[in-house]
Design goal:
Strand content: under 5%
CATH topology: Growth Hormone, Chain: A
Number of helices: 20
Shape: globular
Radius of gyration: 21 Å
Number of domains: 1
Order of helices and strands: HHHHHHHHHHHHHHHHHHHH
CATH architecture: Up-down Bundle
Number of strands: 0
CATH superfamily: MFS general substrate transporter like domains
Length: about 450
């Protein structure tokens, strides 16, 4: 009878964890450019404030379709040289780099909307298997460190990418304004650099990291042979969604409210800050473009804080537990996002972003560390993809609802989208109380009964 663990997992060195996580630097570089600048691009090309959400709907809808499929396929992929997840890293990086290069060359609104669709799909092809990569390669006690390392590179990539338009404008004196319907050079050059960085960072992980084969290769081959065919694949995906582990269902509620908060911030920060702190809604003015650059600086602050917090959160989690750490961080982040409505000074706007950065670090670390211990190893990629439903669904809700709310209830004052986001984030924090961390329960039993070790 073949062993269930023919290639046992071993603790990896910190250098190996760095190499396997470095690709996230490039992925987040592209993601941060998208988050900080696409609403700005849409408005520059003529989008009205209450239509931004509809234009952004491509991003979460793409994730809803792509992520479980990519997770399902990567679980059923194995190549002696390329491995299981790395083919998807590479394909996604190529496609995303092309989309990043083309996005700032958009001359019409529909072009930018289509390219957002392509860009987000490509990012998802690379990003989703990275989450499963940690579950594949790391033993339980290293998973929090693995996800925290990913979070560090996410923060580092976002810091540089978010700051690029401001740097081009204020350091290299490259114009951030352009005639109506055209995108400024500072944004264009930022996206060009992003295309190169995305590809090279992911390539580094592909080259420097290896992968473990499926735990029982013969059973894996039989299961793969039985799951061929689109209809069977769809049935398996549907069955898997409705039989998700209990911990995953509990985290889904937390994720829903958390991601409404972050998505409101990404969609509406530029128009909100331009109107609330810079006193303009005219996209052709320098004041509006300066507001757009400053939003990049604000995003830099929360990303930098998340990069630092990524390595402090595991220490806190050891003392109070992962779910209570996540609860605390989300409540802090919600307060920070809510506070933006009261601030008119651009410099003071940076202070609440420290709180948002703490929440962001935890969001990219704790739910995945909790989830990984509750998933069957053979379906790690699939369930990580399904878990992203609970990132995507709140984004779809926000895309369809927030435009009506801002226009109908708040008279097109986008700052109140950030207020709503802050409240939702804090609610998500409170819902951590219902989460059961399976790994931590096992660790407590082992501490009480050393014979199990």
């Amino acid at each position: 009878m073949p062993s269930l663990h023919p290639v046992p997992k071993h603790r990896l060195s910190f250098r190996q964890i760095i190499n396997m996580s470095f690709g996230f630097f490039g992925i987040q570089f592209g993601f941060a450019l998208q988050n900080a600048n696409v609403s700005r691009i849409f408005q520059t090309l003529g989008a009205e404030i209450d239509k931004i959400g509809f234009l952004w709907v491509a991003a979460p809808l793409t994730g809803l379709l792509v992520q479980p499929i990519i997770g399902y396929l990567s679980d059923r992929t194995w190549h002696r040289k390329w491995g299981r997840r790395r083919p998807f890293f590479f394909i996604g990086a190529v496609l995303a780099s092309i989309a990043l290069f083309l996005m700032p060359q958009s001359t019409m609104l529909w072009m930018a909307a289509v390219l957002l669709w392509v860009l987000d799909a490509s990012i998802n092809i690379s990003m989703e298997p990275f989450r499963a990569f940690v579950g594949d390669k790391l033993v339980s006690e290293q998973r929090t460190t693995g996800f925290a390392t990913q979070t560090f590179f996410i923060g580092l990539g976002a810091v540089i990418a978010s700051l690029l338009p401001w740097i081009f404008t204020n350091v290299f004196h490259i114009s951030n304004t352009a005639p109506a319907g055209q995108i400024g050079d500072s944004v264009k050059y930022s996206f060009y650099i992003g295309a190169v960085v995305f590809f090279l960072a992911v390539l580094w992980t592909v080259i420097t990291s290896d992968e473990l084969p499926p735990e029982n290769i013969e059973e894996w081959k039989q299961e793969k042979a039985q799951s061929k065919g689109l209809v069977i694949a769809v049935k398996e995906i549907t069955k898997g969604i409705f039989s998700m582990p209990k911990t995953m269902a509990q985290l889904a509620v937390v994720q829903f409210f958390t991601w409404v908060g972050f998505y409101c911030m990404w969609l509406y920060s530029t128009p909100a800050i331009a109107q609330n702190a810079y006193g303009t809604i005219d996209t052709t003015t320098k004041a509006y473009q300066d507001a757009g650059d400053w939003v990049g600086v604000m995003f830099t602050v929360y990303s930098a804080i998340s990069a630092v917090a990524a390595f402090l959160l595991p220490l806190l989690a050891k003392k109070i537990g992962r779910k209570y750490t996540h609860m605390l961080c989300l409540i802090i982040g919600g307060i920070g996002l809510f506070a933006l409505v009261f601030i008119k000074s651009p410099n003071i706007l940076l202070i609440p972003m420290i709180a948002v950065g703490i929440a962001w670090a935890s969001t990219l670390t704790m739910p995945y560390a909790i989830l990984a211990g509750a998933l069957p190893p053979a379906k790690m990629g699939f369930y990580m993809g399904v878990f992203n439903f609970f990132i995507v669904i709140p984004q779809l809700v926000a895309s369809f609802v927030m435009g009506f709310v801002i226009k109908g209830l708040f008279h097109e004052q986008a700052i109140y989208a950030l207020v709503i986001g802050g409240v939702c984030m804090a609610i998500g924090g409170i819902f951590n109380l219902i989460v059961v961390d399976k790994d931590e329960k096992i660790e407590r039993v082992m501490d009480m009964h050393p014979v199990f070790e």
